[in-house]
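Give me the 3D structure for Acyl-CoA dehydrogenase.
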Amino acid sequence: MTTTARTAADRAPAHRGEPDTAAEILARAKALAPVLRERADEIEKNRKLPADVVELLRGTGVFRMGSGREWGGPELTSMDQTRVVEALAYGDASAAWCGAIGSLTGPITSFLDADVVKEVYPRQDMVTAGVLAPAGHAERVPGGFRLTGRWSFGSGIDHSDWVTSGAFVFEDSRPYASPDGSNPHESRQFLVPREQVELIDNWHTTGLCGTGSCDYTVTDVFVPENHTYTFYEPRGRLSPLSTPDAFMRMLCGVALGVSRAALDHVREIAATRVDRMTGTAWSDSFRVQVALAECEADFNATRNGVYGGMTRLWEVLEAGGEPTPEERAASPLSWLHAYRSARSIVLRLYDLLQTWSINRSSPMDRWLRDTTTMCQNLPAQDIVLESVGAYLLGGTPKFRISLGITT
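Predicted structure for Acyl-CoA dehydrogenase (407 residues):
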């Protein structure tokens, strides 16, 4: 084991009785949710997760839930992973977002050689964070690359063990083309120890304030060839988690968890509130009844769409089949809809409560800001609609990873 790997392992303290089943991880996430709700103000003001909150998350098993059985992990399905993220988001969106990001260690191992996995991930609850977009410059040198660049939106990077970053490859300062001619300017992912990454304290934002999604830089760091990977080349056991979109599936659970939390919050208030002007109980108010019922309908349809599309895709991939265009398209469309539906539901509930929503002491204020912010994330953008539309029409999608396409 290298010195770097030992350093990373030391930052991930051992937890006895690590959860190994979907039921146990989900139960721990649900049990943690009230604690996260109580600490939501602190998490937001801190602008990143407090160290003990990171360890509470680690104790649920969320960081290791996508790890393969061959590495001692529980290898939860994407559906079970999404349920865990939902449960955490019911407590706090920022904590759930970081939990989902940190769980990417599992899928990443599918794209690394086995000896590298053993070296860099001696424990499967170690955290990998970073930005997949190729914003860096990687110069080919003997044995690997010299990596330099600046990346934005590094959620959870402060408490990470390893940082994965996308970069374009150069050789002799010229764009490097893939040897097979498939790519005129090759890009790869590069694993760098957190200690070799510099954070830029610029995360001052509308919502998801506690995710610590700051910019970061890497300056002329040597990355061995075998610490790089591409989504075109799975190196481990093939499974439904060894496809590019596996990195993104469970993240929409944050939107679902916040939606459910907001709905339950408003229903609890409406059950006892009386209109001061008319004396009418909110439970008997047509306005309240219709608004709540509409939001429940939207939530149920949205959630069923997420799990329906995800389950079908998983079944096809697990059987070794090739998904139809409609089966591939269903998942990214349902993710986008989950983000946008969450914002719509929270906004309507915010309006329903009127002035009771506007104080910072109300969770509605945070939920409105969190859902607005998560809708600015790439999977919630029109490029997903454009890419899915192009794919269904036989064109070339721009955002191929969301469809699990590597060619």
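Strands lie at 128-141, 144-154, 162-171, 174-175, 187-193, 198-200, 214-224, 228-229. Let me know if you want a second pass.
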